[in-house]
Amino acid sequence: MLAAVTAEPALRGRRLVYPVAIGLLLVAIVLAALRVGEKAGRLSDWQALILGITQGATELLPISSSGHLILVPWVANWRYLEEHADFNKTFDVALHLGTLVAVVAYFWSDLVSYVAAWFASVRARAIRTNHERLAWGVFFATIPAAIAGALGESAIEDHLGQPWQIAIFLSVFAILRWIADRRPQRIEIDDLSMKGAFLIGVSQILALMPGVSRSGITITTSRFSELTRDAAARFSFLLLIPIVLGAVIYKGLKHVVLNPLPAGSTGPFIVGTVAAAGVGLIAIDLLLGYVRRHDYTPFVVYRLVLAGLIVAIIASGWRDATF
Questions:
Q1: What are phi and psi for residue 4, nearest 5 degrees?
Q2: How far apart are CA 124 and CA 148, in angstroms?
Q3: Coil, strand or helix: which one is 181?
Q4: What is the mean pLDDT of each run of 10 residues along the chain (323 residues)?
């Protein structure tokens, strides 16, 4: 039987994770300072840097990256992405590519082990080990969210994602996470059944609504299923890889390959992607280190406070409820 999931990342903990992450972030800052590939009147490299940092932190922490990527331009009154939907979609692909690179790099050894286990199971036409069962669980768990994302993309863009809606989703799913986190910690990641993995994967469909959080809803469902906090976070990161990879390929073909990028895209795309990868590495390591010893309460509090701030901003008239 293959060994259980290791506690150490492919980059060997802080020995390489933080130097590589800081190096990537410095590269992004230098490129932004030099305004590489930037064009006047479009998204600036500095704006791309801030959004890349936002993506790297919020995609991997249970606080909603899609919600934050709407809220940051809303608060800062950056209108370019909102007014240029095609550019916004391609830039979103670049940011998600950055966090995908971070997760793959961090969990490389685990990823290789699970992929090898999946192919071994296919060849044997049987599921013989915990790794093979979990690999199939991730495979089947990805399908519902992938189908829902492909079919519901337009509906989501047209009807969801307004700041007032994000505030509601932030608060509702914060409360659900707090309730879930009161459950006992009984199940480690290698003990997760295929049915349990599939049900957790199905919950990703809710994350299509900005403000819910993909990692947040999978962690919440995992904790309701009595996974340990560490196992819940790790399984959430494993689920991210196929779903984000599929989204990057699908949206990349649809919005980048089939539609040439407008002038002034190269700089912001590179800066945002590199920044997201660097910050993403740090976010993964910090979250896993934290949940081994503590619960998810700080993220619950953060979501509730942020929801309250959104309501206060709207009530003050400083920003509209829609964007």
A1: -65, 165
A2: 31
A3: coil
A4: 47 76 97 92 94 96 95 95 84 92 93 94 93 93 88 75 96 98 94 92 93 96 96 94 89 74 83 97 94 94 98 96 88
Which pTM was predicted? 0.92
Q: How many residues are there in the chain?
A: 323
**Residue 168 CB neighbour total at 10 angstroms:** 15
Q: Which among 271, 305, 298 has a CA at the least distance from the CA of 42?
A: 271
| DSSP code string of 224-267 | HTTB-HHHHHHHHHHHHHHHHHHHHHHHHIIIIISSPPPTT-HH
Distance CA 17, CA 190 (A): 25
Q: What is the DSSP letter of 187?
A: B
CA distances from 44 to 30, 181, 268 (A): 14, 40, 6
Phi and psi at 70, nearest 5°, equal -90, -40
- Can you name the residues that pair with 187 across neighbouring β-strands? 227
- CB-neighbour burial class of residue 303 (10 A; exposed 0-12, middle 13-18, buried 19+): buried
**Residue among 181, 184, 224 nearest 202 (CA):** 224
Beta bridge partners, 101, equal none
φ, ψ of residue 187 to 5 degrees: the values are: -115, 125
Residue 158, both tokens: 């047209």
